[in-house]
Amino acid sequence: MVTVRDLMSSDLVTVSPELTLRDAIELLTARHIGGAPVVAGSRLLGVFAASDALAFEAVTPGVTMERPEQLESELEIPPEWEVEGSEPPAAFFTDMWIDTGEDVAERFQHSRPEWDALQEHTVAEVMTPSVYAVSPETELADAARRMLRLKIHRVLVLEAGKLAGILTTTDIVRAVAERRVT
Asked: pLDDT digit string (tens) for 141-165?
C-alpha cells in the first residue's frame, strides 16, 4: 500500500502572509511550484497558489490612461462576436481592462508603481484560508480521490498537528510516470 508519506515533499517552501504578491509569485516561479502553505511563525494560515494571484489580478481594475482617439469603426463589435457565447475565452479578462490602454501581459510586466498592484498587496489578502490536510499514513488513493473531489492540486500533510509536507498532483503524476504506483 502506497501512502502519502511515500510521495509527499517534506522540503517545504512556505510564504509569509505579509509577503507581497509580486515577491510570492517570483518565489513560486523560481522554485517551479504552483503554490505554497502560508505560515506565520509555526501557525498554518492557509495556502497561496498562483491561481489566487491570477484571480486577484483579474478583478483588480487598471489605472485609466488617456488613449489616442479611436476611429468609430475600431469601436464596432466584430460580427462574429455578436452571437452569444462566441466570444474568445480570454474576452472575459480583456473586457475588464478595456479602458486601461494596456493588455494583460503588459500589466503583469509593467514596472511603474501605479500599475504594480502585485507589489501593493499581500499574500494574506488573496490566499485561500481553507486548508485541506491529510496525515502521512493516508493511502495515496484516498488522498487522490479527495483532491479530485475538491478540485484542488495540493493537500498539506499534517503530523501531530504540525506541517510535515505537501502532496501535489505533480507528485502523483511523477510517481505514476516512474511506475512507483499503478
From this structure: 999 999 999 999 999 999 999 999 9
